[in-house]
Amino acid sequence: MANFWDLPKDVRKKIYRLHLVREDPVTLEEHADATDFCDYSTSSHRRMPHICFVSHKAEKEAATVYYGENHFDLASAAASFGWQTYTRHMRLIRRLTCTWPKINAHDAFLAVARMKRLEELCIRVDEVSMVEDRLKDRHFRQDWKCSDPTPQQQLAILRHPGMTGLLTIQGVPHVEFIKSHNWRGDEVGGPIPGGILETQIKPKLMSPKAAKAHAIVESGSLIFLSLPAEIRNRIYGLVLEINGPVHPSRKAPSSATRGKTVQDKISHVLKSSLNLLAVNRQIHDEAVGIFYHANHLEFYYPAQLHAFLLSLSPLRQSFIRNIALHYYNNKSGGIDLIDLTLPLLKQLTGLRRFHLLFNKDLTNRLYSTRYLSASPYNVLKANPTTLPGVKFLFTLPGVTDIKLRDTALDSALEDIRERERKPDFTQNLKDRWYIKLERIFEHLNAALVDAQAGRVNRKLLDDDEWHLKEVFPHLNDD
What is the model's pTM? Predict the structure, then answer.
């Protein structure tokens, strides 16, 4: 009597497909419905399709169809799926979509790496949000809401949890980073166009596994130092010039991936472009000036700038041209920290641009503290020159671009200019004082420019209430 195994193999595969293959991607819940736990004492947590329990031959044929011809969408549960699936079945999967999980991301991508025959991999991400999370960890005082992060800020994603596990995946012919989903199911985020995930991570996932080989130096090989100086300088620039602000820090470089183990962390913390300066003395002397001269250095605390300048030799200090400092002051023993840091700027003989950035330091002073005041807002205490350190800037020589800014004020002014006017008199009253504060900053910045030419407006420095007048004092008023 004929039975199922007497049928041709192609016919049996058609039956498997009718039973196991789905048009839509298989979710983890649908996979749980289509499979069952093994009853073997050593594999009680493993799952496979019900038909695979018939015999070993049925498992071999049916598993190839189920795992190899379905498209799996595991959302954030790739780690759980890998834990419940035999390795021999994981190696059959060809198409997978998953979400970069917030928990157990390293284990999730290690599970994906077990899918040796993977041909198509789609990973849902919100790269901007992921960059913001890493930046908050490094600089928690900053209000990171950057819709367009700079190239250096984007490097922070290399330290995102799961990156080390993700980089164990190699040789996938087609890899895409796609938009993620929020709790309502709407698409959000996605990769940054031309960002780190698309330009650095994606090629690594698609490249075949590199064979281990020893570098062989042939007699006719090119020696870097034999290149013309112009070409070497061009190479130095490509390595050391950053498109966007550079944030010097004693923490591990933002280009270092975040390892799962302590050993992984140690093996990655040295990945910094400044390692080029340690190759030899000649390369150090040729390239050291490019990094400090060409880049815009941004510091979030005066203590960071203080420690950075003290760690530099006079030669390196002389190359620095562009600095931005976020205002923050801590008074101890009657001494303001900002007053100890700003005088160090006079050591930077090449400094040409200095911006002092406030974050709500002035806008928070718009609120009136007077009892039963006629207006809930005023600029009585919003005089920038009364803040420690500001008056010193009038004595800073040789800086052609010197400016004070309040990032919260910039956002408020942008909102005022873009939104449609509505009959909200309270809001409009607040807008008036924002515009008044803008005028104060503009006048003070103009006075700083005059001071660079040796024309100091003493009225601004001696009168703490000059900003309350309708007409601000000019040089010809002295």
Answer: 0.68
